[in-house]
Write a structure and sequence with these properties.
globular; 4 helices
């Protein structure tokens, strides 16, 4: 599922105009305990995300995009 997870997160990053660092900061802000390198490896598909990790990262992007008027464009794990 890493390819689907990475693709969904990459799409969200592009929509948000975010860098990996932006996603990392936002994910830590909502309770994630990632290293920046973990976020980089999950989003580029070189490290598999767990269901919980993917959902935290998706929530971080979706929170930002919801503020921009988009309705949760990054799929959560169960929708991948």
């Amino acid at each position: 599922m890493s390819a689907e997870s990475a693709a969904a997160l990459q799409e969200g990053l592009a929509l948000a105009h975010w860098t990996i660092t932006d996603l990392w900061v936002a994910s830590v802000g909502i309770g994630g305990s990632f290293a920046r390198t973990d976020v980089a490896h999950i989003t580029d598909g070189t490290r598999d995300a767990t269901q919980a990790e993917h959902n935290i990262l998706a929530a971080a992007v979706n929170d930002h995009l919801t503020d921009q008027g988009l309705d949760h464009p990054v799929d959560y794990w169960h929708d991948l």
